[in-house]
Specification:
By secondary structure, the protein is an alpha/beta fold. It has a single domain (2-299), classed as Orthogonal Bundle (Neutral Protease, domain 2). Helices cover 53% and strands 6% of the residues. Helix 9 (224-230) crosses helix 10 (232-253). The longest helix has 22 residues, at 44-65. The radius of gyration is 19 Å and the shape is globular.
């Protein structure tokens, strides 16, 4: 199934870059939000929608974690996108500039989001119907916009643990953690959006691993940059596995697992082996995290 996905889901870790020396006062500004919000001309309505969700997520994360990062959010048109980033990030992929405090998201639907849609007649009827229902735009067209809009909240999670200096121990643990935060926010505050968050990962996971060279947690840890840059579809599969795992962990452990992990890993020295890490998380956070690590390989869809 994944062979139909033209462009993969790539975390913004691989897309950070220097912002152009552009003045933010060239953009519109929204006031009275937790983050600093700027937007391209003609997109105020969309900016209010995105800023509102990011704002609610920031306030919610702060209530869970007792920390507030510094975040500036730019909601940009394609023309402004090229002015405010040199990262090479394709239009539509949320990403930070090199200061790790300025988050850039798209104001418009775009070919990147649409490219993730497989030919629906190649999918099982139930899954294709879910996609038609969940990812339909107001004009009746299909796009993964509803999923990608939520990735801004994923990236917001990185601002929290990154600026707080939480030692995530593994690259994959950092990704899993922000997906747990994301899933928790949606489940607790906007549960009507859970299908938008979960159907796309289900679609990718169901496609199996025949195309992928790397599938283990050790693979992605030791070759994190290589997989992200040179095997992006493979990396997208990992992200979808982490999305799915985050949902299971939330369902088992509840919202407080976010703070438990935060407190357990804060200032924690390096934990050398995954076996030691799983035991530590089972004792100090929740068994569901240990189960994810221990069962990762056996849950791979061949």
């Amino acid at each position: 199934m994944t062979k139909y996905i033209i462009l993969p889901l790539i975390t913004c870790f691989f897309l950070v870059g220097q912002a152009e020396a552009q003045e933010l006062d060239q953009l519109g500004k929204l006031n009275n939000f937790a983050a600093k919000i700027y937007y391209s001309t003609g997109h105020e309505k969309r900016a209010v929608l995105i800023a509102g969700r990011v704002d609610r997520a920031m306030v919610y994360y702060q209530s869970l974690l007792g920390f507030k990062p510094e975040v500036t959010l730019l909601i940009l048109s394609p023309s402004d996108w090229t002015k405010y980033t040199k990262s090479g990030a394709v239009y539509g992929m949320p990403h930070y500039t090199s200061d790790s405090k300025t988050l850039i998201v798209a104001a418009e639907d775009n070919p990147f989001w649409k490219s993730f849609l497989p030919p629906l007649d190649k999918l099982p009827a139930g899954l294709s119907e879910q996609i038609r229902t969940v990812y339909k735009n107001e004009d009746g067209s299909l796009s993964m916009q509803a999923f990608f809009d939520l990735l801004a909240i994923h990236e917001l999670g990185h601002a929290f643990h990154g600026q707080a200096g939480i030692k995530m121990q593994r690259n994959w643990m950092g990704e899993l953690y922000v997906n747990i935060l994301l899933h928790t926010y949606i489940a607790e505050n906007e549960p009507q959006l859970l299908p938008s968050l979960t159907v796309f990962p289900q679609m990718v996971i169901a496609g199996g691993i025949k195309e992928f060279k790397y599938t283990s947690l050790n693979d992605v840890e030791t070759k994190y940059n290589e997989i992200g840059r040179n095997h992006p579809r493979n990396y997208g599969w990992y992200q979808c596995r982490w999305h799915a795992a985050a949902g299971k962990i939330y369902d088992t452990a509840g919202k407080q697992v976010n703070r438990k992990v935060w407190d357990a890993l804060k200032n924690k020295p390096r934990i050398e082996t995954d076996e030691e890490l799983s035991s530590f998380l089972e004792t100090n956070a929740d068994k569901s995290l240990a189960d994810m690590i221990r069962n990762w390989d056996r849950e791979v869809v061949k």
